[in-house]
Each structure stands twice: as structure tokens, then as C-alpha cells.
């Protein structure tokens, strides 16, 4: 005799019973997680007391990156790396706040890419200060009004960020102690249809990174530069016929529709941000060192300087030239470079001693752990 199919009510009852059982299990797991998180926080608080007694820095990017790497390496799924990193970032942030509420300046307003980079590095248990320019970020750190600043350093499409490079020349004693690599996905935000858009706001770099898309899809729109993508979103919210090139988070914050997603011309668009402070980061074993230097104005001087890296087997990961302001009429350049290694590594020490002989000016901007793309 063929088995009769189960009735819908019977299946529903079984499903409800299974749901109840699974939810009960989740509730128990949540309580276990909460207990363990609080135990972890208590241990972090004790570490904070020891740090206070020894006058050690509360923010330790090397240790925080080590914690994240440990849990990511141990994870067997099903949660992906992005989710695990986000969860533990906030656990670390909250634990750090038990030791001290650190202050961080960034180019605002909220949900600018600088703000997103700051949250990616520090989490939410931080006192954030929004400022109106990259110069202001440097100045707030320099005056010790904040502990750290977050500034854009370079973009994979546009290269070095000139305002940041100029401020390193003005305040060379400030140190890069960490970096954030953020995948940048631009979106067209508006509260009107595409056909009604007459003006598009964004920061110059974002407009440049979407130049081809905007030219093809909004050929008659007026492109307007503003200080940040978040300011652009604010203006698009307020002005009829206006749109913004900005993040998804900005769309949520300012109540805008995402008309088109991922409109950047280069699909692997990435911006690297520097975390600046007053102190060096300790050695992690997988580090970068950033420096700036100026060479004499004669043939072969730059080649001689760069040969130092080759001779010491140091891999250059970035090089950028920037006009240096001098009192002479001669146009001179400062060179910014990153290379793999820490300032405490013996071969890095040897290289810096050799490099100094070829430079009129040499400033180490800091050594810091190499970041992965977020």
C-alpha cells in the first residue's frame, strides 16, 4: 500500500517543533557566547591595568591584527572571513574601551570613506571626531586633541593623495602606525529618476574614478566637486535633480535610493588609508616601512637611492613623487616609498644608513603591520 502524503498541518507542526528546538539551542549558545565575551573583557581590563602601570599604548595594531589572524586561521566556517572580522573587530573595540576610550579624527561627515576606514580599523567603541579637511586631521593629532587620525594615502586608480603627502612634509614627526586597505565601490544615489538628474556631487577622486560611467550614462549632468562623498549625499538629499557618488552606507544614512551600484570604472578600485599617531608600532613579522626622502638635483641621484633597496633585497611596494616647496627657483621633488620590512630589522637598518648617504633629507614615517583588503 502506497504511503499517504503527510498533510500540510502535520508538516507545519513538525517544522514548528524543529524551529523551537533550534531556537532554544541558539538561545543557550547566545548565553554561552555572552559569558565568554564578558570573561574576555575582564581579562582585557586586567591587561589595561598592566598597560597603565607601564605607560604602554592602549591601541596595539600588531596585537589586534594577531588576534584577528588567529581566529580567522582557526575558523572552519560556515561564517566567511568578512563576517568573522566584523564580529571580532567590535569585541576588540569594546575590550579596548574598557582600558581607555581612544579619540580618532577623520575627514567627515559620517559615512565618508574615511569614516568607513576608521570603523574598519577601530570599531564603534571609540570617540570619533569629524573634521573638514585632511589638514585638520593632522593638526588634531599634532596638538594631541585626538590619539589617532585616519587619512587617505593612495588610491589604485589615482595614486597618492596630494593633501596627505603635503601634510607629511609639514608635520614629518607624526608616524604611520597602521594601515587600512578598503575596497571602494561607488554608487549613484538620488531621490529622483536617472532622467531627472541635472547635477552629480562627489569628491574629485570619486568623480574621476567613475568618469567613464558618468560620461556614458549622464553625459549632460553637471559634475560638482565637494569635500567628501558623505557631503555629496547630504546635498543630493536636499537638492531636487541632484545625485551623489557615494557609499551604500551613505544611502542608508541620508535616505537616498541606490539607482546604480558599483559604477567605478576599475572593478578592483581600492584606497589605502594611513592611521597616524605620535608613536611607532612594534614589530609584527609581516610589516611595511614608509619613508620620504629628497635626493640632490643631479643625474643618477634617484637611481643611486633606489639601488639601496635592491642591494639590501627590500621589496618596494609603493613609490610616489611630490613637488617639494623650496626657497630656490629650482623645482625639486620629495619621494614617498613603502617597502617590506620593519625599522628594527637588521637589513632595514643597514639600508637606511646607506640611503642617508644619497639623500639631502630622509624621514622615516613609520613601520606598521601589512593590512589585507577589507
Features:
12 helices, 374 residues, alpha/beta, 5-stranded mixed β-sheet, D-Maltodextrin-Binding Protein, domain 2, 6-stranded mixed β-sheet
Explain the overall architecture.
This protein is α/β, with parallel strands linked by helices and 374 residues long. Among the domains are: 101-184, Periplasmic binding protein-like II (D-Maltodextrin-Binding Protein, domain 2); 187-260, D-Maltodextrin-Binding Protein, domain 2, CATH 3.40.190; 280-369, Alpha-Beta Plaits, CATH 3.30.70.260. The chain has helices at 8-54, 61-74, 81-99, 113-122, 134-142, 162-170, 204-209, 211-217, 229-238, 248-254, 301-311, 346-356; strands spanning 103-107, 127-131, 148-155, 159-160, 175-183, 187-190, 199-202, 222-225, 242-246, 257-260, 270-277, 287-294, 316-324, 332-340, 361-369. A hairpin with a 7-residue loop joins strand 13 (316-324) and strand 14. Helix 1 crosses helix 3, helix 2 (61-74) packs antiparallel against helix 3 and helix 11 packs antiparallel against helix 12.
Amino acid at each position: 500500500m502506497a504511503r499517504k502524503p503527510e498533510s500540510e498541518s502535520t508538516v507545519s507542526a513538525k517544522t514548528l517543533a524543529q524551529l523551537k528546538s533550534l531556537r532554544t539551542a541558539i538561545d543557550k549558545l547566545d548565553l554561552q557566547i555572552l559569558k565568554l565575551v564578558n570573561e574576555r573583557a575582564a581579562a582585557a581590563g586586567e591587561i589595561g591595568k598592566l598597560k597603565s602601570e607601564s605607560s604602554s599604548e592602549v591601541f596595539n595594531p600588531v596585537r589586534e591584527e594577531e588576534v584577528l589572524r588567529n581566529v580567522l586561521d582557526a575558523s572552519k566556517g560556515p561564517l566567511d572571513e568578512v563576517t568573522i572580522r566584523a564580529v571580532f573587530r567590535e569585541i576588540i573595540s569594546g575590550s579596548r574601551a574598557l582600558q581607555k576610550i581612544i579619540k580618532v579624527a577623520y575627514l567627515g561627515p559620517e559615512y565618508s570613506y574615511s569614516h568607513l576606514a576608521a570603523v574598519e580599523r577601530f570599531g564603534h567603541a571609540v570617540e570619533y571626531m569629524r573634521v573638514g579637511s585632511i589638514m585638520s586631521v593632522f593638526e588634531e593629532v599634532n596638538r594631541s586633541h585626538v590619539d589617532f587620525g585616519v587619512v587617505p594615502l593612495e588610491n589604485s586608480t589615482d595614486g597618492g593623495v596630494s593633501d596627505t603627502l603635503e601634510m607629511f612634509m609639514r608635520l614629518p614627526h607624526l608616524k604611520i602606525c597602521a594601515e587600512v586597505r578598503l575596497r571602494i565601490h561607488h554608487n549613484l544615489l538620488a531621490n529622483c529618476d536617472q532622467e531627472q538628474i541635472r547635477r552629480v556631487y562627489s569628491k574629485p577622486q570619486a568623480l574621476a574614478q567613475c568618469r567613464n560611467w558618468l560620461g556614458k550614462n549622464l553625459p549632460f549632468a553637471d559634475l560638482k566637486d565637494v569635500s567628501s562623498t558623505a557631503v555629496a549625499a547630504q546635498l543630493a538629499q536636499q537638492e531636487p535633480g541632484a545625485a551623489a557618488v557615494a557609499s551604500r552606507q551613505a544611502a542608508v544614512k541620508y535616505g537616498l535610493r541606490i539607482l546604480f551600484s558599483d559604477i567605478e570604472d576599475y572593478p578592483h578600485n581600492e584606497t589605502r588609508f594611513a592611521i597616524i599617531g605620535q608613536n611607532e608600532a612594534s614589530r609584527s613579522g609581516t610589516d611595511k616601512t614608509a619613508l620620504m626622502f629628497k635626493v640632490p638635483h643631479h643625474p643618477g641621484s634617484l637611481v643611486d637611492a633606489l639601488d639601496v633597496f635592491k642591494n639590501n633585497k627590500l621589496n618596494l611596494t609603493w613609490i610616489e613623487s611630490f613637488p617639494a616647496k623650496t626657497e630656490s627657483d629650482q623645482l625639486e621633488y620629495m619621494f614617498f616609498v613603502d617597502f617590506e620590512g620593519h625599522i628594527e630589522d637588521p637589513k632595514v637598518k643597514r639600508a637606511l644608513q646607506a640611503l642617508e648617504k644619497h639623500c639631502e633629507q630622509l624621514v622615516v614615517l613609520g613601520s606598521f603591520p601589512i593590512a589585507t583588503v577589507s
